[in-house]
Amino acid sequence: MSDIVFSRRSGWIPNVIREDGELKLMLGAGADANHDPRTFTFPIGEAHLAVIQEDLARHLLLWSAVLPLCDAAGTRGTLDENAAVALLDPILLSAPADVDALFRRIPWDRGRLIAHGADIGLLERGQVCAALRTATETSDGKRAQEYHANRRRAERGTVLGPLDTAILRYTGQYLHGSTIPKRTPDAVDPALLPEVVRVVATAEQACAGKRIGRDPRRGKRATDKRDWDRMATAVETAVRRAHAGLADDAVRSVSFLMCSEAADRSRNAPMEDDEQAAGGRARKTALSFTDDKGVEKKWVQDGPRSATAEFWEFVGDRSASDNEVFTIEDEEMGEGVQLHFYADSIARVTTVREASGGSDPEYRVEYSLVDGMGGYRKLVSTFVLGGCAALDRHGPWMSDVAEFERARRRRDAK
What we know:
Blueprint: E1 2-6, E2 15-19, E3 22-31, E4 37-43, H1 46-54, H2 56-73, H3 81-93, H4 96-103, H5 110-115, H6 120-124, H7 128-131, H8 141-155, H9 162-170, H10 193-206, H11 225-242, H12 248-267, H13 274-277, E5 286-290, E6 296-300, H14 307-318, E7 325-330, E8 335-340, E9 345-353, E10 362-369, H15 372-390, H16 401-413
Antiparallel strand pairs: 1-2, 2-3, 3-4, 5-6, 5-7, 7-8, 8-9, 9-10
């Protein structure tokens, strides 16, 4: 049975409880194996309680010093009570100079103090007691996040100017570079917003007419990494040329924004009709799509969707790490293509002689290397528009398997 003796407005700052007649400090920290929060307690004395009640700064300093001990306990270990108790007198009852000296020797949670208003400059100089003169019971987690973001940049040797900072805030990338970017003009100093908009306009002009296509090999909503890289390179080159003083972080943030927006447009659009994009109409009237698991899907010309859109939808639904071979077959014409996603290659198969008199049919199989998703799209739409004969100009085609494997190894070795 425990009763709360003292608590502050912020529910995370440690409480003082009385448990079986004994005073204890109770704090939540970390999580167990089931991701539920862990709670730790350790004994304190009446003198410690008096300081905790009267001195917010000392209370926060104690919390900051105990948190690393909680982290050390992990998901199931116990708190080192002796180490926690050993912190009480030096932090709560010692002179400020001695507390400062202690914090130069022990691990402590800097972000927690910054979130509660500590002066960052004084903390950096080791004057922890003076830094906590501005402390507040309420917490500002964003302040701590910004501090850690700036510290990570400093460790990389990155120095941001006002425009760099404004661009990162505009794209939502200031706190963490892997956050999905978006346009947030309200987060930018109004005086700098016109400059930010000019940089973004440069990026938009650089990627005008470019697109990031879908890559069904990686799932229904996956996009083509090569298209992404090409767009990012074009944007970064243009922005660096037009705005030479920008930091790399700001330039990459703008290109990330452009690529993310282009990828979202692609993901949310219907699967592309490659025959129409190529300026033709499928000559095939009926096709059969199969995967490496034996699943089959039929397409007929009178259906609502084009052959290529239907095929790539089939790939997006079925493609997986153990399902990387897909076939398009025209049974009537006796020809087809087989796509090997695991090897960036394709085979075209043509019937040379039909089965007759109990003999098996004879096929001609030729192989070619494929240059990424764009290459696959071009070959599939070419086959749908004109059959195997139309693929001649997209060679070289190799009928000798050993020759093809040598060519594949040469390409992969580059």
